Amino acid sequence: MPPFDIPEGDPFGPHNLPYGVFSPSGSQERTVGVRLGDHVLDAGAAARALGSPHAGLLARPSLDALLAAGRPVWSDVRRAMREWVTTPEHQEALAPCFHPLSTVTLHLPFQVADYVDFYSSEHHARNVGQIFRPDAEDSLTPNWKHLPIGYHGRSGTVVVSGTDVVRPSGQRKAPADAAPVFGPSIRLDIEAEVGFVVGVPSELGSPVPLDGFREHVFGLCLLNDWSARDIQAWEYVPLGPFLGKSFATSVSAWITPLEALEEARVTPPERTHPLLPYLDDSGAGPGGYDLRISVAINGKVVAEPPFSTMYWTAAQQLAQMTVNGASLRTGDLYGSGTVSGPSENQRGSLLELTWNGRDPLELPEGKRTFLEDGDVVTLSAWAPGPDGTRIGLGDVTGRVVPA
Ligand code: MN
After folding, report:
1. Of 42, 51, 264, 305, which is most buried by a Cβ count within 10 Å?
2. Distance 190 CA to ligand 1 centre (A)
3. Is 357 exposed, middle or buried (0-12, 13-18, 19+ CB in 10 A)?
4. Could you tell me which CATH number the domain at 19-107 has?
5. How far, in whole angstroms, is CA 111 from its chain's centroid?
6. For domain 115-401, which CATH number applies: 3.40.50.300, 3.90.850.10, 3.10.180.10, 1.50.10.10?
7. For the segment 70-98, what is each residue's pLDDT rounded down to a tens digit?
8. pTM score, whole prediction
9. Ligand 1 centroid to 228 CA: how many Å?
10. What is the distance in A from the centroid of ligand 1 to the CA of 37?
């Protein structure tokens, strides 16, 4: 029977169990699913078949109820599922609850509440600084080592992996141009990022401390922060990103629970500046995650950004986001910022990979500075799991279609 004989070393084995929402073949109905190998387990149907008390949380059209339920429930449900899919006696009862992944439709798995995007890779921030402010004494802005910089984005345009991305139109004006022009972006880019999904809300007026991260955050997924560099460059001073980024943000259909990533926790880079107490994570345990990301354009890998090199951790980002008393809602999503490592082949944006168009990439289809219509961008990643296994993250893919 297919789901129980997944090959050893499958990155979606029973130690992973990411959550998504799917419709079985021929059905419009949405329900919570868990990925096992190349199958999806209908989690609500499985809970019913086995008489589990979790059926009420899982037989739902989205992950929202599960997200709101909190860490003790998340742990219980995960433990139960692990037991379901590894106990041979359950095989017969569960068999009708499995669907081949290739036959289902995957949906955005939760209602995205607020969306924030950070800028937490030092290598990315320095590359961008060198590209846009070549004469500056320091490629980092003076605040960068003191707080994780971010901006509030547009949650309503977060789309699930596989959704086409229409090339955005807008104003652009190169420094040498006399006046702005309007038209489709000619510098459409990607940003390879990791998104964190908030489950448990917080109260208005009450900051979430660093050690509140595991209580509030359910899991993570890959995220592509599509960016129109020409629109962005003309509009962003002095208030920051706006229409150059709000047209689409793609996320994976699979949310990996933090509990699946215990073995992937790593110590972040050494802090070079003393931190204010609310951000000081010295002695807080490893707050980084060792996620090995790949960026592919039309199937060709163009970069392998290492998430372990991120300067600011997800716990610090959460603390920063709420330190003024701003509250969290179930379904809040925050992006890590573009993940770029120290090497040239570890950069998570075309802006950096081509050094703002100066050094085109060679693809089988021809040279690329920024994205062409028809290009398909796919982010994938894995993390070390228990006993030498790998934990696969769900891909996030999107095709650029003409304006
Ligand atoms: Mn971004």
Report:
1. 305
2. 8
3. middle
4. 2.30.30.230
5. 15
6. 3.90.850.10
7. 999 999 999 999 999 999 999 999 999 99
8. 0.98
9. 11
10. 30
